[in-house]
Structures
1.
Amino acid sequence: MNKARQLNEIHSKWFKDCVCELQKTATQPVPGVGNPEARIVFIGEAPGKDEDEQGQPFVGRAGKFLNEMLTSIGMKREDVYITNTVKYRPPNNRDPLPEEKSACYHWLADELNCIQPKLIVTLGRHALSNFVPEARISDVHGKVLKKRGHLHLADGNSIVLSTEYFFPLYHPAAAMYNGDLRKVIIEDFKKIPEILKNYAASREV
Ligand code: URA
């Protein structure tokens, strides 16, 4: 089965089976979108108001900023895969709780293990903490981290991922209206093509 069909099946399954409590208040789930063959996956925190309304990740103001940065490195949304840690909007955009993240990790892990990206770009400290809980974003943004990917579940188990390279960025929503952070994220973003060339040239693991 090709990856596009596999991803559709993954989304259909988790539309039914996801046990995240946030579905009680969200309008709809927001699955990842993009190229199933992408070598790079961007992971945010959680859908906001626009995403909750439209059912697609990063379609609001932060998403427009993300699109601009993709354009600046000669990429389009269709070249990459974009998803979130949790698939439902938290009420009033509060931080997702550990158990909400854990409930959505199965969906995220299925997306990642289907696509098997060479590079995972984490957007913001929440997305970073999924994979590298000990790291501080102010120390590691704009640096490639090599680590076997794991998602740690609330019950103490973890899901192993095939991806080994992580590239943490500040969250576009946090950076877009903050002059200093905006410069930092734009500069960090420009490193992506070189990183893909150096660390993620082939699809073989
Ligand atoms: N912020 C996120 O983390 N994800 C979105 O989809 C939109 C804003």
2.
Amino acid sequence: MLIKRTADIPSSEITSESIYLRRREFMVRSGLALTAAALPSGLLAEDGTPLRPLKAVSATPAMSVSGFYTDEKKTPFDDVARYNNFYEFGTDKGDPARYAHALTTDPWSVQVDGEVGKPGNYALEDLLKGIDLEERIYRLRCVEAWSMVVPWVGVPLHKLLAKLEPTSKAKYVEFTTLVRPSEMRGQKSRFSTIDWPYVEGLRMDEAMHPLTLMAVGLYGKELPNQNGAPFRLVVPWKYGFKSIKSIVKIRLTETQPKTTWQQLAPSEYGFYANVNPTVDHPRWSQKYERRLPNSLFDPNRIKTQMFNGYEAQVASLYKGMNLRRYY
Ligand code: MTE
């Protein structure tokens, strides 16, 4: 797997992480040579299959773009993969790690339609073909006021969209999560308030922003199912609920998509959902966040930053907009 890195990231960040990936064809098809690099014995995929060794490719220097990496302490893998929101598997933070192993993620296809020149039902590996994977270390700030620092692996969404050839009518991108109640127990629950599928959306300029990533991995490994395998959105300056998981549909539209949380509680969750410590959630303050890992005795409370610390990169997208109204 080719992971680009910029000059501003210490090589230890990447080269020290060996990259072990499951046998997804897109990695092979994207031109990666396999090596016989040995895996630590006993390393298994979520479904219990032994992982096959894939080459850890040395990073290719790319243009340095500010915001791609934070040098804040990364949240340990165990916390990133065990404290999750993925309501398709239940509402408890431990439910996704407990139940998401049941999800079949290979093969995976993504329906692309709407205002694009290249609509179709793409196998994930074909969709990603020809686009180099990059590592990004981003803050993730949930609307519930907890946060993490996650080293993602993925492709910039703008590169993917360029491949799909948006028409001049494309103003928004709508993303849809898989519906498969047989493997997603939360979708069967009588207590679920969500009208499945989970849907999210971005304005076109937000989707084209260099920080917006389609992730396929984290910590140099494929995405754990509970983190949205095999393909999810990551928009680091927005509350985490915008970063929709396990995507099966991408639709380009002229009109603003109707998104899950906005439909469910419009006075609490807006379409934009930009991280903003000056606009409180109606039921709690957004001024501070708990940075994981934390505990009852050490809440690790830190100040929330405007646009989650990406103000220099993204504030211009919202020039002249009333962010109290468009929350
Ligand atoms: N995507 C889907 N399909 N279903 C969900 O419940 N939860 C969102 C987002 N994406 C969610 C989702 C919320 S509220 C957050 S904070 C992030 O996923 C959490 O991502 P993580 O579990 O990888 O940290």
